[in-house]
Amino acid sequence: MRLATIEVNQEETLAVVTEKGVVLVKAINDKQGTSYPVELLQLLRSGQLDDLQSWYDAGGKQAIEQGTFAFVDDYKVKPLYRHPSKIWGIGLNYVEHAADLSEKAPNTEPASFMKPDTTIIGIGDTIKIPVQSERTTAEAELGVIIGKKCKDVEEEDAEHYVAGYTTIIDMTAEDILQKNPRYLTQSKSFDTFFSFGPQFVTKDEVDDVLSLEVSTIINGKLHRKNTVDHMTFTPFNLVSFHSKVMTLLPGDIISTGTPGAVPIQDGDEVECRIDGFAPLKNKCIDLKTETHQEGVNHGLTIT
Predict the structure, then answer these.
(1) How many domains are contained in the chain?
(2) In which domain, by residue range, is 64 found?
(3) Phi and psi (nearest 5°) for 156?
(4) pLDDT one-digit tens code per residue, 98-125
(5) Angle 288-292-298 (CA atoms, 0-180°, nearest 5)?
(6) Which DSSP category does 123 fall into?
(7) Of residues 85, 84, 175, 96, the one with CA closest to residue 133
(8) Which string of DSSP letters, residue by residue, matches 204-253?
(9) What is the mean pLDDT of residues 10-33?
(10) Cα distance between residue 226 and residue 215, in whole Å
(11) Contact, 150 vs 241, CB < 8 A?
């Protein structure tokens, strides 16, 4: 099953996405007499994702594709949700990426960091290169979304706590980080530095997560790609490791690392492409350019 958060009549709401069309979860509730939450984060926290999945598998998908529910035609895709309790990022998880930066890849424990939810944007939103940075990079990554409260789980059991996956573009003010590794949080935490969506893909849709190919695309051209099985720490290893640090909660996100970071400039379009997933694309603006700096000075909203 694939879910998305869309804006309809200036209201963000949850929808089921099929090849035939998009249907509001609210419309399913109205016709079926169910009460599934119409926000993805609430759905995950309520524990009702499995119920919706069961309905979908037992004939719901067929009913949607047969037109039992009205398809939504006029909508805008938004971030999947805006306030997870935690966003974990993983640095240098592909050995090849570490070599790009002339660094040694961690091999005993993952190099993880946390990001605030104020970094979140979605497909079509604009990445804003901050005035403090002369070299900002964008990184395509596979995102793991936690579905159940998770504490001290072993790697072989971690899959049971995963609700699904998504595409992510993570940003880094690389020049700030290179000044001092202690500046990692600053370099990762500027507004618009975490794009995710457009779809939440339940784990049953992914036959083998380790075989997924993740690609960083810049202006339509491939920058770098790699498969998940070339990670030093696999997605389930990351879930297990972090659950032994702190309790993971439904909706928590683990961004699993990038095959390659690409420097971005004003006017660029960066994309995360993963096999079988809807692509995630964002345009970039540089707040240091004269046009955009004028907008900042006058308190204007830049889009």
Answers:
(1) 2
(2) 2-77
(3) -70, -15
(4) 555 556 666 789 999 999 999 999 999 9
(5) 110
(6) T
(7) 175
(8) GG-S-GGG-EEEEEETTEEEEEEEGGGBSS-HHHHHHHHHTTS-B-TT-E
(9) 96
(10) 7
(11) no
**Position 73: which residue type?**
D
Establish if 57 belongs to a structural domain.
yes
Please indicate, yes or no, whether residues 71 and 173 belong to a single structural domain of this protein. no
- pLDDT per residue as tens digits for the range 24-72: 999 999 999 999 999 999 999 999 999 999 999 999 999 999 999 999 9
> What is the identity of the amino acid at 267?
G
The DSSP output letter for 71 is P
Same domain, 129 and 243: yes
Pairwise CA distance, residues 67 & 50, whole Å? 23
Domain boundary residue among 77, 95, 128?
A: 77
Q: Residue 13 CA to chain centroid, in angstroms?
A: 18
Radius of gyration of the chain (CA): 19
Q: Please give the Cα distance from 188 to 133 (Å, whole number).
A: 11
Pair 72, 93 in one domain: no
Please give the torsion angle defined by the CA atoms of residues 221, 226, 227 and 228, in that order, rounded to the nearest 10 degrees: -110
Domain final position from 77, 96, 119? 77
The predicted model scores a pTM of: 0.92
Do residue 72 and residue 91 come from a single domain? Answer: no
Q: How far apart are CA 189 and CA 211, in angstroms?
A: 30
| Strands annotated E in the chain | 2-8, 11-17, 22-24, 76-77, 87-91, 111-114, 120-121, 126-129, 136-146, 162-173, 194-196, 200-202, 213-218, 221-227, 253-255, 261-263, 269-274, 280-286
The closest alpha carbon to 129, from 271, 292, 261, belongs to 292
Residues 171, 276 within the same domain: yes
Same domain, 208 and 71: no
Cβ 5 vs Cβ 15: under 8 Å = yes
